[in-house]
Amino acid sequence: MDLKFVLESLLFAAQKPLSPMELRDILNRAAQEENAIEPVRALLKLDIERILESLKALEEEHRTAGRSYRLVCVAGAWQFVNEPDYGPWLRAFLGVKNRPSRLSQPALETLAIVAYRQPITRAEMEQIRGVAVDGVLSSLVERGLIEQVGRAEVVGRPMQYGTTDAFLEYFGLAGLEGLPDASELRRIPVQRPDSLLTVDPGLATVPESPKLEEASPESLALALEGTPTDGTPISGVIPEEPAPSAGDVGGVSEPT
């Protein structure tokens, strides 16, 4: 039995995206059933790499078939989604669902800084942006787009932040490697105050060039703006309108 089509049947029936690990667990449970037939037992304890290869082959087949739906990977999980072009009919059939408020420009700039420089502390975000980020930071945490990921090895051990799976889903990314190329933005130097010297000098700053003025928070936000947010829905449901692009404004106010 072709593994590719077994996975296709599972994803077609699934009510939520499934990761390769979850798919392997399902295959194992089926193979361990007392009355499992030989083709089913043959799919016991498969390597994750083999499952990924089959998923990618299935993704390519559906992409080239030109159907109204396709297979995508978002935040490490796989799902079938409808093409946005068919949204008007699906909205008429399924109804319109409420969507979260859009991100403001200050929130987007802060989120972009976290995405490209994680793990990063609040003080480092403020140094790059040049303004306080307390309000925006709290809002991004509440929305589940960023989270606490540990503490910096400096005096006082401030909390560090990083992006979440919800961030990947919001921008339609399979993983952080899918972020637009912004290597020059990752090198913005951050000069920590003397009171926050690290135990390891190599952790104190990044390389001295380019200078801070060469890559602003606005540049970071523009880099995210190229992320492929096409509004592809989870579990085949088309949203009210295409998901907000990274340049959308509204929803979160800039702290004073």
Topology:
Layout: H1 3-13, H2 20-31, H3 38-41, H4 48-65, E1 69-74, E2 77-82, H5 87-94, H6 105-117, E3 120-121, H7 122-129, H8 134-142, E4 146-151, E5 159-163, H9 165-171, H10 183-186, H11 217-225
Antiparallel strand pairs: 1-2, 3-5, 4-5
Percent helix range: 40-55%
Task: Compute the average pLDDT.
Answer: 76
CATH superfamily of the largest domain: Winged helix-like DNA-binding domain superfamily/Winged helix DNA-binding domain
Largest sheet descriptor:
3 strands, antiparallel
CATH architecture name of the largest domain? Orthogonal Bundle
Question: How would you portray this structure in words?
Answer:
There is one protein chain. This protein is mainly alpha-helical and 256 residues long. The protein folds into two domains: 3-94, Winged helix-like DNA-binding domain superfamily/Winged helix DNA-binding domain (Arc Repressor Mutant, subunit A, Orthogonal Bundle); 105-228, Winged helix-like DNA-binding domain superfamily/Winged helix DNA-binding domain (Arc Repressor Mutant, subunit A). It has eleven helices and five strands. Strands 3-5-4 form a three-stranded antiparallel beta sheet. Helix 1 packs across helix 4, helix 6 crosses helix 8 and helix 6 (105-117) crosses helix 11. The protein is globular.
